[in-house]
Amino acid sequence: MTRDGSSSVTRRQFLVSSGLTGALALAGCTQEGDSGNGGTDSTDDSLSGAIDISGSSTVFPLATAMTQRFAEDHSGVRPNVSPTGTGGGFANSFCAGDTDFNNASRPIREPEREQCSGNDIEPVELRVATDALTVVVNNDADWIDCITTEELAQIWSGEDSPSTWQEVNSEWPDRELELYGPSDASGTYDYFIESILGEGGSHRQDYSPTEQDRTIIQGVEGSENALGYLGFAYYSQNSDRVKALGVDDGDGCVEPSLETARSGEYTPLARPLFTYAKKSALTEDQIAEFARFWLENSTSQEIVANEVGYVPLSDSDQSEQMDALETAIDEARS
To answer: Which of 20, 25, 229, 249 has minimal CB crowding within 10 Å?
Structure first.
């Protein structure tokens, strides 16, 4: 395995490229005593080495925020985070033995576990946040503010594949549907199929697929007839550029937000986010300490909610994940 920190992303580069505003607030939720740097106030040179992370583009902004804070405290550590997509990260990097972590916007699948096992890699699942998958349209699409799950299923179905808005709802205009979304290497794509299209459902392929969520934002922003879906963090950082739709699952329209994802109101599109650690890599001090750092800050209002745009873990969930991590570290080192 080759370790090279040359492609790591600086905090300034990340903020500029992702357009983070750091201005999203959660009503009624505070985090006391959160310094935003894992409780350390000075640089610690005792850790060194690379931390290689692949996987979900949805988890990418959170992973980057965490690695940059960790590197600020540990100048000898070289983080390298690549947004390859959940499935692409498992298949091409993590289960091949080339990365220490794989971010995922869905749980690992059995074929992926088998691939990892074939290469003597044991993945350790760590839940790090909750997302609200978000459906977006152009700001000038004044005919729609809410969409039902049935309408979403029809729009994205590989069987139906309607070509105009009016084919889905007679009250919508007779305009061509222009669709943007994640590629089939993405966990967001997989989650959308499971949640909206259902078991055995197929996702239409005549759309503009991408692993870059900013490309979805750009596509929807550029066409009045466009519709797309992506993780809430990328929408929240670009909420002036596109319009998020409320989703009606049969109990009324619910808008995507951190509050509705936290409460469980935003169904069925609220979902857990994960990172998977390679168990054998936890014998390396910088890997184990970074995993601890991430989970220690997984309840952070400042980082997870305000800066990135996801729901932080509850204290009880954090404790459960920390127990799983410490068990894995002990087993890796025994």
So the answer is: 25
Q: Indicate whether this model's pTM tops 0.70.
A: yes
Number of helices (H), then strands (E), belonging to the chain: the values are 12, 13
Residues in the chain: 334
Dihedrals phi, psi of 21, to nearest 5 degrees = -105, -25
Q: From CA 214, how far away is CA 238, in angstroms rounded?
A: 9
Q: Bridge partners of 113?
A: none
3-class DSSP state of 278: strand
Q: Strand order of the sheet with strand 242-244?
A: 208-210, 178-182, 226-230, 134-138, 242-244
Q: What is the CA radius of gyration of the chain?
A: 20
List alpha helices for the chain, DSSP H.
11-18, 60-73, 86-89, 110-118, 149-156, 165-168, 187-192, 213-221, 232-236, 258-263, 285-296, 315-333
Q: How far apart are CA 270 and CA 256, in angstroms?
A: 9
Biggest CA–CA distance in the chain, Å, is 65
Q: Write the DSSP symbol of residue 37.
A: S
Q: Could you give all domains of the chain from N- to C-terminal order, each with its CATH number? A: 5-130+273-333 (3.40.190.10), 134-255 (3.40.190.10)
Distances (CA, A) of 81 to 60, 101, 151, 276: 7, 9, 36, 13
Instruction: Report which residue type is found at 161.
Output: S
Q: Encode pLDDT of 120-154 as tens digits.
A: 999 999 999 999 999 999 999 999 999 999 999 99
